[in-house]
C-alpha cells in the first residue's frame, strides 16, 4: 500500500512540474492574416532547433493558424507575397521566396522581407524576440506577447506600409510597376558600411545610415540595421505569441483584450505618419508566475518529506 501511495504521489508531482516549471511547456504561435490579400507564411528554424510541424503554408485574408513550438526553439517567421504556381508545379513568390516551394524546408527568406525572430527559453529562462527590417521590408507585421511577464515584455512590429514611401533606389516593383517591397541598403548596394562587415563589423564602426534611419523613423521598435539592439530586442517569460500580418492600429488591444491592460498601439504623428508604440505588459496569467518559483520548490520539499515517512 505504501509503495502504491509513494508512486502515485511521485506521478502527481511530475505532472505538476510539467505544468509549472518554465521551459517545460511548449509555446503557441497564433499567426493571423489581416491583409486584403493572401499571405504565405514561411518558417525557418535555427541550426540548433528542430523544424516545426510546418515550414510554409497559405493564409487567406482573415484566416488564422496556430503552430506549437517546443521549449528552447529558435527561428524566424515571415510572410511571402505575390505567390503563384506555374504549369510545371514550381511555386514562387515575388517577395520572401524560400526556394520555389510552399514548404520552406530549411530555406530562409529571399530579401527583402519583414522578419519576426525568436529564441525561446534563452538566457535567464527568457524568450528573446524582435521584428527585423535588416533584410528589408515587404509587408506590415506585429508580434504581440500573450500572458507573458517581464519589464521588457512588449509588443513590437512595423505596422506601416513602407512600400509606398520606399526610396527609388531601394524599391522593388512588380511587372506592372506596383511597389511590392523595399530593399535594405546592404541588399541594394552591398557596401560594408551598410552591411556591417569588413572594416565595419563592430557596433563602434557600423552606424545607422540615412537609409536605415528611414526605416527607424517609420518603425522605431523594429531592427533597422545589424546593431540596432538597444531599442529593438524584447524579452518575455512564459508567453505565447500572436503574429499578425497587416495589423490594424489597435491590433494589440484586440488580441490581448481581457489579458493585459497596458497594450501598445499605433499613433499618428503631427506629420501624418503612423508610428507603432510599445508598452510593457504587466498582467501575468501563468500559474507559475502566480505561485512563484519558491512555491514550486516548497511543494517539492513537502512531497520529499512525505515520502520519507512512508
TrEMBL record:
<feature type="disulfide bond">
    <location>
        <begin position="166"/>
        <end position="182"/>
    </location>
</feature>
<feature type="disulfide bond">
    <location>
        <begin position="35"/>
        <end position="246"/>
    </location>
</feature>
<feature type="disulfide bond">
    <location>
        <begin position="158"/>
        <end position="219"/>
    </location>
</feature>
<dbReference type="Pfam" id="PF00314">
    <property type="entry name" value="Thaumatin"/>
</dbReference>
<feature type="disulfide bond">
    <location>
        <begin position="153"/>
        <end position="236"/>
    </location>
</feature>
<dbReference type="InterPro" id="IPR017949">
    <property type="entry name" value="Thaumatin_CS"/>
</dbReference>
<feature type="disulfide bond">
    <location>
        <begin position="196"/>
        <end position="206"/>
    </location>
</feature>
<feature type="disulfide bond">
    <location>
        <begin position="186"/>
        <end position="195"/>
    </location>
</feature>
<comment type="similarity">
    <text>Belongs to the thaumatin family.</text>
</comment>
<keyword id="KW-1015">Disulfide bond</keyword>
<dbReference type="InterPro" id="IPR001938">
    <property type="entry name" value="Thaumatin"/>
</dbReference>
<protein>
    <recommendedName>
        <fullName>Thaumatin-like protein 1b</fullName>
    </recommendedName>
</protein>
<feature type="disulfide bond">
    <location>
        <begin position="83"/>
        <end position="93"/>
    </location>
</feature>
<dbReference type="InterPro" id="IPR037176">
    <property type="entry name" value="Osmotin/thaumatin-like_sf"/>
</dbReference>
<feature type="region of interest" description="Disordered">
    <location>
        <begin position="250"/>
        <end position="270"/>
    </location>
</feature>
<feature type="disulfide bond">
    <location>
        <begin position="98"/>
        <end position="104"/>
    </location>
</feature>
